[in-house]
Structures are given as C-alpha cells and as structure tokens.
Amino acid sequence: MNTPLRRLSMVVVVMFLALMMSATWVQYVRAPDLNNDPRNVRTLYREYDRARGPIVVGGEAIASSEPVDSPFGYLRSYSDGPLYAHATGYFSVVYGRSGIERAMNTELNGTADSLFYSRLQDLVTGRQPEGAAVELTLDPAAQQAAWDALGDQRGAVVAMDTRTGEVLVMVSKPSYDPNILAVHSSREVTERWAELNEADGNPLTNRAIAGNTYPPGSTFKLVTAAAALEDGLGIDEQIDAPDQLPLPQSTAVLRNFGGSSCSPTGTQTLGDALRISCNTAFGQLGLDLGADAVRAQAEAFGFGQELQIPTTVTPSYFPEDPNDPNTVLSAIGQYEVRVTPLQVAMLSAAIANDGVLMEPQLVRSVRGQDLEVIRETRPQELGRAVSTSTAEALQDMMVEVVQNGTGRAAQISGVQVAGKTGTAQTSAEAAPHAWFTAFAPADDPRVAVAVIVENGGAMGNEATGGAVAAPIARSVIQAVLE
Amino acid sequence: MATVLTQPARSSRTLELWLLALALAVGVGAYALVGMAMEDSIPPDIVGYSAGLIGLSVGLHLVLRWRAPYADPVLLPVVVGLNGIGLAMIYRLDASYGTADAPSTFAERQLAWTALGVVMAALVLIVLRDHRTLRRYTYTAMLVGLLLLVLPLVPHLGVEINGARIWIRIGDNSLQPAEFAKIALAVFFAGYLVTMRDTLALAGPKVMGLQLPRPRDLGPILLAWAASLAVLVFQRDLGTSLLFFGLFVGMLYLATERISWVVIGLGLFMGGALTAAQVFPHVAGRFNGWLNAYDNEVFNAAFGGSGQLVRGLFGMANGGLFGTGWGQGYPQLVPYAESDFIIPSLGEELGLTGLLAILVCYLVLAERGLRTAVGVRDGFGKLFAGGMSFVIAFQCFVVVGGVTRLIPLTGLTMPFMAYGGSSLLANWMIVALLLRISDSARRPAPPSSPVPDAPSDDSPIVVGGRDGGGRDSDGRGVEASDNETVQLGVGEVRP
Question: What ipTM did this prediction achieve?
Fold first, then answer.
C-alpha cells in the first residue's frame, strides 16, 4: 500500500500549503485591514505605546499625545475638545476611533505606506518613531464664530472655500469632550460612553456630514432652479406661481409659506420666485421638468456620492422614482429628499465657483517629525455642476434673496452676500428646521456656508431660515473674510 | 514502488543528538527571551528549567539508543522543539494572566504534563518491543476506543465546558478521553482494515469513472460515520467528530486504494454536518461564525459568535511578517490563548515567519511518519503508522485552518504546543509508537527474521496481492524480501 501512502503524503503537503497560504493571507495580505478595524483594541494598545502625531489647526495642535506614567505610555488630549470634537473624533481604548483619528489613523500612528522612508530613517538613526502630524483645513476664528453663533441650539454649520473645496468650519451641536473618552480606565470610558449615548440630541453624532440627514426644504429650490436654467428657462421669464397648487392624483393642495400669495397675477419671474421662495412656482417647475431632470441636477451637485473628506460623508439622497405629487414636493426639498449640511454648502460653493464643484477636503497636509511635508492635498474638481451662465444667473438670484428677499438677515455692510433660506417641515408636531446657505463676497466668492438649526432652535415654531439661520451664516462669513 | 524503502544500516542516533541540541536551544532560548521581555531578566529558574527539559529529552534519547536504535532521528528533536516553543508561549501568557497575588501556573502544569508524557513515551518504547503485538488487540482496542469516546457522557464523570461535553473530571484534573481514543481507534482501524482490505477493495459497480464499493461493504464506513455524528450530536464537538472520521477515511483509503471511499466518506460527512447545521444551533453557530465572522452582530454575540476567532485574527495581523517578538504582543486578549488559540498567539509574537517555520516542523513530523509507514514491512504497521501520521497532519489542518478562517473553527488543540495534559500525553505516546515502528522500518533485515512472530499473522493479505505482481509490500515473508529484491536485484537475496 505504498502508492496510497505516497499519495497521502502529497495530500498532507497540499494541506500544509493551504495552511501556509491561509496564514500569509491573514498576516500579510489582510493585515492592514485587520489592524485598522475599529474593534481591534490590540492596535489601540500598541498605538498608545507610541507618540501619536498631533492634529493641527491654524498652526496649533488641537489633539496631541502626552507621555504619562502608565502601561499605555501616552495619553491623547484635546486642547479645545468640544469645539473640534466632530472634526477630530475620539480615540478610545474601548470604542476605537472616529473622525480624523480614524480616517487618518495610519498617518497619525506612523504606519502609513507614505511614511515608509520616515520609518526607515528612524530605524537607521535610532530615533524614537513618531506618528505624522495631520494639519486640518479648518479656520479657527470661523470655527469659533460658528460655535458661538449656534449657541445652545441643535444643528450644524459647515463652511467651505469655494475655490479649493477646503472645509473651513465644521461645527455640530450638541458636542462632547473627546478627552473624557481618551482616558485609559475602560470602566470610566464605558460609563461616559453610556452617558453620551443617553444624552439628549446624540452629541456623538456629527450632524455636519454624517448625522441623520435632513430634509433641505427651500434650499433645494437652488437645484430646481438650476435644472430649469439648464433647461433653457431665463431668469426674467414668467412662470406659474398660483396661490395653491393642486397636487396631481390627489385632493391635497400645495400652499405657500403661511398661506400667502406669491403674486397677484398668478405668474412671476423665476428670479422673483426664488427671492420670495415661492413653493407653488417651484413645485410646478419640478413637475414640468420631471423628477429625472431634477435628480440629474442634484447628482451633478454631489447627491448620491460617497465622499471621503477623508472622514466618510453620508450621501445625500433624491427619491428614486417619485410619482407626480411627490415630484412636486421633492422639487421644494420636502418628501424624501435628504441632505447633509456639507451638501448644502457644496450647492452654494459650486454656484459661487462658476458652476465647478470642488471636492471638499478636511486635511491640508501631512507632516513628518521634522515638519517636512509628506503629503499635501491639492484642490480637486468633482465635476461641473452647471454651466457658467447658469451659475451666474443663480448668483444674481441669490444676491437678490439677501438684498430684497427672505435672507436679509445675512447682510453685511461692505460685503455683498448671496444666499438662500429654507424652512423644512419634518412632522406635524415638531417645529421646522431652519436652513440658510450663502456665499460671499458675491463678486469674488471665497467662502460658502450652510447652517441648519434643528426644529427652529430658540425660536421654535416661529422660526424661519431667514430669522434663525441667516444671522449665524453672517457671523461665519465675517469671521472668514476678516 | 519498493525502491527506497530501507536505509543502509545506520543508527543515526548521533544525528539525533545534534538535532536535539538544536531543538533544546530553541526551546530554552525562547524561555529566556520571554523572561527578558516580561520581567527584564533571565528567569531565575532557567537552570532548573533547562536541566529538566534537557534531562527529559536526553533520557528519551538514551531509551531510544537502548530499545530502538534504528528509529527515525528527526521525530524526537522536532517534537522536543515544538513542545519547548509551546511551553515558552504558555509561560509568557502566564506572565500576562497572573497577578502578584494570584499567579497563573499553566506553564508549571504543562511542564509536569510534558514530563509525564516523556515518561509515558519511554514506557511505550520499553514495554512494546514490536508494534505488531498491538494487532492482537484489534477488537479490544475498538472497545477501549468507543468506551473512551462515550466516557464524557457518563453522568457525574463527564463535565461540560463551553457547551462541549468532551471532558471527564478525575480529582482536580480534567481529561479529554478522546485524545487517547485516537490511538485506540487507530489500532482498531489498522487491525480491522488489514484483514478486510481485499474485501473492501473488491470492485463494485463503476459510476462516472469511480469504482464504487459493493453496497454490503458499506457497513463499516456507515458505522464510523454514525459514531462520529454521535460525537457531534451528543458531545457537541465538531472537531473530535471531524478528526475521527478523517482518520477512518484516511486509513480506509490507505487500505483499499479506492478514491471512491474518500468521495463517499467526504460526501457522508458533509451531508451529516450540513444536516447538523440545520438541526443543531451550536453547529449552525460555528458555520455562521465562520462565514460572517466580521459582522458586528456575530462578532459581539455573547455565545457562539466569532469574537474569539476575529480577535485571534487581529493578533496574527498585529504580528505581521516578523512578529512583535516574545512578550511584545497582546496574545492574552484572545480567550484560550494558551490552548485552542496558541497558534494565533505564536503568529502574533513570532510573525508569519515563525508560524511558517512551526508549520514546516509539523509537516516534517507528519512526512517522517508517513515515510516510516512506507518503510515498514507489515501491512498493520503501514496502516497504523500512516493513520497516526495522517491524524497529526489532519489535526494541524483542522486547528490552524480553523484559527486562520480557512475552515470553520472547531475546538481541537495543536499537538505538543497547546496547553492540555491529555493532548500532550496522547501525542507523546503517538510519537513513541511512530519511533517504535520506524525502528522496525529502518532496521536492516537480517537473513533470518529477527521477529519471532508467526508469519500466519499476515497471511490473509500476503497471498498474491491484488495487483497481481506483488507491487505492494504488505506482509513480511514473501513480500518483505520483495523489497530487497527490487533494491538489490533479483536473485541476490535468495539464500
């Protein structure tokens, strides 16, 4: 029976080859993914044992690792914890990482491929290896202004550089202090975590890019207007603006805000319709254009895209195949349309940038121990959202909104601001969300802003985007331009 | 076929001593490195520890010189090396598990079990002068094997740990009788199959190029299948069940040379396992934890989830190519890092490089065993040695495959390395048996048979050999000299 014995030894060899391949798969091929798994506490232990690179905003470290006398070696500390919490994210022995701490983890802990030469240097010179510094695009003054202006209200503020896509402001409220999750006692961390999860308003949620997305309300009329302009409609052309728009296939009717009338004649120009945010006019416009045209325009502005800035952004959503009445509602940003505040800022940014949408970026550069630049983020175009002429028309219309329309609260002396308000109904009981998006200066745009104040904030049911959100946007724009 | 069967008469014991020195250097060196990494100093008991390890292995080496001078020189050093590395890892885990008030003592106990295992191996070598003696106990072995298998089901004696009922408690120690059943059943399978092989190999109908056995010969395989399914169902242990069935199918193939048996066996086991996965939640859990290991829900499941498996994978990934080094990783984060999950522990601290080296050691062990089977002259010895070598390899496959997520995870232990007394004792006995058989395989055949066994012992299979030409070398007598005939040229051996 030597023949089967020899065959069996071949089988044994094959079995061991399979094991070796399997081990190689785990320890070499899949190892980077496994090491980055947020459930992998082991990586965290290892990382606590080395100096993690700082996160830098405006030349100052907002997150850094300090040596401590404990088995972990280093303690992560955040100098302005709550203000930047949703940008930095947390770094916890129990719950892993979030935000930039997660998205830029390999750079911060020094294991990224791009840091290979730096590691080699450390090895040769015997220098203690350290993670790289990650510099963010945030503007500290504007971030603080947004934080103060939003006050105790729930909501989010995002500002972008219209020309580069750099994110200048990312505030989400309520916030939390990542320092309390960075401590090494897992019992303490677990308790704090439970408190945060039970706290009102989910402080751990980054409303700016990854919260439960919001209905955009009237800010979405920018998209519908863009689709109409691209379709050949002129800014001064008369469109239907009835007092009531009967919803097709149903007995319901669409009214204007507060039951008011858009125009005594029943028609008005596209520019006027946007200036006073006429629901019936844009509902009818959406119906005429069709849901597909509006969705295509929304996607050109970035809807449906999974952005990594490098933190993951929840894609904004326009309904797949709405029927006619829902098309009417979708065209004014209701029904199932959902956006992130970042997406709304991207609307203004693309319009301000003559129709070209820049990719939002939160990281400006990665720097090694000697502050040498290892990686620098270059402005990237995401694509053209609208033609230059359409963008110019929209710019003019948005200037009108702030000068003579619903967004007058955003006016700044000496600077021409262009904007659009929104007041998004959520349910019959809750007060509507107040929206405002803007860019400035209108003649040479630099910054685009989106503000949402949940459920009207301090003003509750009386709130409109113009009254509650526009003043916040104004503070942010002032802070950026100063 | 019978070309490279016998080596020139050389005892190779000196080679063994050198290899042993190497293996001991690895084991003791690992122990010292662990001490330096964990306590910043060479362990104070290093002298006693090395003396113990050296004494045990050299003692066994001397027993071999005395009782089995021609035994394979590689088997013992490989096993000593693996056992030493396992001990170092367990000692290293103790340092992480224990506190000043309640030190963890896995390593001490494992060392004691190692000593006992080596003594058992020596006893086997001293008492058992000829492996063919075991053939007389074919059916006794079957009874003992089955008895050992059902022992954990006896009320009060058997204990259930983590849902599996494969342990018995004697005093303070829990034993896994299945480890010993492995040996008993290998004896039984070898004795039974060597007698029945011609019957089982008889041609039945041919279907799609496969020579199927006659339906009435399916009895034994169905019995083995039923027994292993019973283990699966009543003891809830997929690993043991898989191991026994693998052993049986492997040996059946060796005896009959019929691929059809393997196909039928695999088909039966898969069918049984899939049905069990449908019916029994604990089996279904194993499959789910394998297929959807990374799902958060499965990962966090309190019982039967993939948390342990994935944490082990995290550990291995942390080790990467070259490992963290002794004491620098976090193997203690994985439950049962010292027993079922000792491979991920080693993968983490010794890296892929170290793990591959360990796998090669096991491969060498199994291949040397199979080579012994090729070399030995009697059919029973061939089957027995082949079966036991295969079971070592198969156990490695099931364990390492399980922890690297190649196959579903089962609760088996890595031979010689994992913490566990039964496993150590049983595997040292297996090595002793392989050494015993290899001695007989490599012993130069004197003109008159040195073994006074009755030649009729193997008579049922010696006659003719089913391939007609006596291509196989099964019995001693006629076919033993057939080996020599081929090697030396026809006519030279005939007296």
Answer: 0.86
